[in-house]
Amino acid sequence: MSIATARVGSNIAFIKYWGVADATLNIPLSNSISMTLADAHTTTTVAWDNTGTLDGDVFVLDGNTQSPARSQRLTRHLDILRGLAGVTWRAWVTSQNNFPTASGIASSASGFAALTVAGSAALGLDLSNSRLSAIARRSSGSASRSLFGGFVEWEQGTSDADSVARPLYGPEHWDLRDVVAIVSGEEKKLSSADGHLLAKSSPLLAGRIDHVAGWLAETRTAIAQREIHRLGPIIELDALAMHSVMMTSNPSLLYWQPGTLEILQAVRAWREDDGLAVYFTIDAGPNVHLICEAERATEVETRLAGLRSVERIISSPPGPGPQLLDEHLI
Ligand code: DP6
Predict the structure, then answer these.
(1) Tell me: the pLDDT tens digits for 147-161?
(2) What domains can you pick out in the chain, each with its CATH number?
(3) What is the mean pLDDT of the chain?
(4) Ligand 1 geometric centre to CA of 317 (Å)
(5) 328 with 50: CB under 8 angstroms?
(6) Among 42, 96, 192, 280, which is disulfide-ready with 110 (CB 3.0 to 4.6 Å)?
(7) What is the pTM of this model?
(8) pLDDT on residue 1
(9) Residues near ligand 1 (Cβ within 6 A)
(10) What is the pairing mode between strands 20-22 and 27-28?
């Protein structure tokens, strides 16, 4: 049995990935920039069965054995690794998130990145992080960014080989916090994979894509200079632009709940009335990620806890890239 275990952090995008140029390869319509999270990670053990005992992959997620239907995306991903190694072995895969699924933190980003790192290490494949990023991208675009720690940019690229993430700065560069305000733990009705396909039906998509190159440049500079008041307005603008595309696609995607708007209004009031340096971003769901510097995090958490619609708060600094662990989950 060849076995390996990897721990990989999820990430929050500052400039988002929404819409695909190639849906099979997950080639995006633009670059995106994210921060890898230290305290929201997935640990995955992959054990390849080279004895032929298994007739299908076995996937246990957070202690629950997944049905074949729920294991399909995993099996397709393992097929890529099997193809690279030239084997037909099935695998036992056990995966553990240290954050609740459907919490507004992307479990597929850390999940597919951890599966890629553990699965390829257990096969003895010696692949660079850039290669691993391309492989992770095939099953979850945002997973390509979790192959690196700190602040990361996923280059759009034009092919399977060059649509990969690269590190901008390590986690020590800037002590930011992602304070996630959970307004609903419900699973989303439409997967991001289906959402990406709808982006082209929005009349606003072209407007966002036309502007994104400028927003990426501004974001790189803001991170380089550690300027929260430069980063914040751009991440809010891009999150609102992405949600405008979602809302105006056909069919329309409306991820927000009343609580989402309560938080957006509160953040703006805290900033304008009290000078609190905090900004929001939102992924494909109702929960809101508040981005601030470490010194403001306790104040932000206290204020969030006072809002009616906030069910739960999760907070994380920037974190490292993938780690291989000696202790296995199987
Ligand atoms: C809105 O295709 O990576 O989070 O694999 O379902 O997690 P999943 O989604 P993916 O799309 C992510 C879209 C986003 C923006 C982003 O993370 O860039």
Answers:
(1) 999 999 999 999 999
(2) 2-171 (3.30.230.10), 176-316 (3.30.70.890)
(3) 96
(4) 20
(5) no
(6) 42
(7) 0.97
(8) 61
(9) 13, 16-18, 32, 106, 108-109, 140-142, 191-193, 196, 283-284
(10) antiparallel
